[in-house]
Known about the structure:
Layout: H1 2-35, H2 40-45, E1 48-49, E2 59-67, E3 74-75, E4 82-83, E5 85-95, E6 102-113, E7 116-119, E8 124-129, E9 135-137, E10 140-145, H3 153-162, H4 169-172, E11 180-187, E12 192-202, E13 205-215, H5 219-249
Parallel strand pairs: 1-2, 8-13, 9-13
Antiparallel strand pairs: 2-7, 2-12, 3-4, 5-6, 5-11, 7-8, 10-11, 12-13
Amino acid sequence: MVLARQSAERRLMWITAIAVVIVLLGLAIGWVALRSLLVVPRLVRSEVQAPSTVSEGSFAVCRGTATEGDEGVIAAPFTGQECLSFEFEVTERQPSFVGIPWSNDHLDDGVATTTFELDGEYGDLAVDPSPRRFSLDTESTVITVDPRETPPDRIRRFLDVRGLPSVARWLAVVPLLGTRRFVERRVDPGEEYLVAGKADYREGRVTLIGDLVITDRTPWGFALGRLRMAVFPLIVAAVFVATGSWVLLG
């Protein structure tokens, strides 16, 4: 009798612990999804300005043509194309345990940028994104590599420099799994972009600085894109929180 009661208590303890983990995981997923939406209300409420009209100390949303600044251009990691800023992400198709057969699991990501110009009809504006984090919402170039293929030379060098291992053998032999996606987004010279962020006075001129949003869409197009991306994570977060809470309170 005592042993049965102790076994039941241990089982209840494990169930409670798992439920707490599920709730916390749901809250974490929800926070990441909501965080990507924080800039949206401010961006869609702001008037789109010409680069020459942006003033110091304001949150500005302006549209213009990106051109090379004093720092020149940099090479994008996967295509090698000359650009002013880039953002990359590497994912691998792995088994999923949340109701779908697989998911594209994160392996690596990063950004790099130069200080560039945003030209308008009546003047220009310097743009200095944070070298550690900014939001680049532009058209993606996606290179897909099957686990049984030899990656292109540029991607192979990238994997070596970043220290990313090869696809696991067990994963490579499972159909549809192990495929890697190399996603690249760029700010290309001569193309038009919408840039949103804080304006500051640097080196004798107004400059957009910090964690900027850079997109090739309209403000509402950017907002709808962010909302679409957040829907599935928010649904997963709600299911996790509801399931864990039901177990804890049941």
